[in-house]
Amino acid sequence: MTKAEKTRNYIVEKTAPIFNIKGYAGTSLNDITAATGLTKGSIYGNFANKDEVALAAFDYNLNDNVSKIEAAMAAQTTSKTKLMSYVDAYQSVIASTFTSGGCPILNTAIDSDDTHPALREKVVKAVLSWKKRIIKLIEEGIENKEIAADSNSEQIALTIIAMIEGGIMISRLMNKLENWDLIIDSLKNYINSLK
């Protein structure tokens, strides 16, 4: 890795949590320089603008969460246990980041909805990839007779995503991690009911 690549990675690693907590609009160049200890010139020597830093920070935050969830799922053998480990891993990830921003998909979706088309597009791709992954698990479950043949895999995937993101939103809005756990319990019951 070149010195420039190391510096870029360092900037992203140090600013990703800030973007996840404060959002795109709330994160200033001063926040970026304070977090990295670098000058504005050094930041702009590695990124054309704050937009580029924000896009890289979103990728970093998303990949960090996805890698934890994929690792948990890899240990499972059935579709339903993979779905359940997916939910367990998400529950753990959000609980561990509850006071430091939470879910980058939810945070960035809200933050970029009308203000940052490139960032919004990254979130759309992340959600579509998420949906596709869950649909694949549901279809494998149908094929293996773990889940009813007449199940609507897209509807199930969207329900799971909505319960996760809605649970995060409610728990963070009310500042009660217990709400997150209650909603996750309901989601687990939903997954167990898929027959």
UniProtKB/TrEMBL annotation:
Task: Name the chain's protein.
Answer: TetR/AcrR family transcriptional regulator
Portion annotated as DNA-binding = 28-47
Give the HTH tetR-type domain ranges. Answer: 5-65
Asked whether the UniProt record includes Coiled coil among its keywords, one would answer no
Domain of life according to the entry: Bacteria
Write down the species.
Pedobacter jamesrossensis
Recorded hits in PANTHER family, A to Z, give: HTH-TYPE TRANSCRIPTIONAL REGULATOR LMRA, TRANSCRIPTIONAL REGULATORY PROTEIN
Claim: Lipid metabolism is one of the keywords in the record: no
Which UniProt keywords are present, listed alphabetically?
A: DNA-binding, Transcription, Transcription regulation
PROSITE patterns, from UniProt? HTH_TETR_2 (PS50977)
